[in-house]
Amino acid sequence: MARSVKKGPFVDLHLMKKVRAMVESGEKRVVKTWSRRSTVTPEMVGFTFAVHNGRKFIPVFVTENAVGHKLGEFSPTRTFHGHSGDRKGKVETAAPAPAAPGAAPRK
């Protein structure tokens, strides 16, 4: 369910403090965060966040298109190995033999 407009977007305070400190100082560094639930705000555009996916940190560069989304959306937690039907041996179909010259075409 979506968060109400009255409340505004949720951003963890410790993450917002780091972003505001970087904006004020003018430096750009990678911010490591476990806060996958935080919403991307316009202040975060142009910065890189290392979002934890449960095993490692995935670098996420925030652009204008990411505003309004959650940081966790850009750091997948599961590895997709393909569908089970794709692992079976592929059956190669034999190419049709060329028709003999002068033979009637098949219908």
Helix-residue proportion:
10-25%
Instruction: Note the run of SSEs as H and E.
Output: HEEE
| Biggest sheet features | 3 strands, mixed
Distance between the termini: 58 Å
Strand line-up across the major sheet: 1-2-3
User: How confident is the prediction overall: mean pLDDT?
Assistant: 88
What's the shape? elongated
Count of helical regions: 1
The percentage of residues in β strands lies in 5-15%
Rg calculated over all Cα atoms: 26 Å
Quick tags:
107 residues; alpha+beta; elongated
Task: Write up what this structure looks like.
The mean pLDDT is 88. The chain is elongated and about 85 Å long. It is of the alpha+beta class and 107 residues long. It is built from 1 helix and 3 strands.
How is this fold's topology laid out?
Layout: H1 13-25, E1 31-33, E2 48-52, E3 57-61
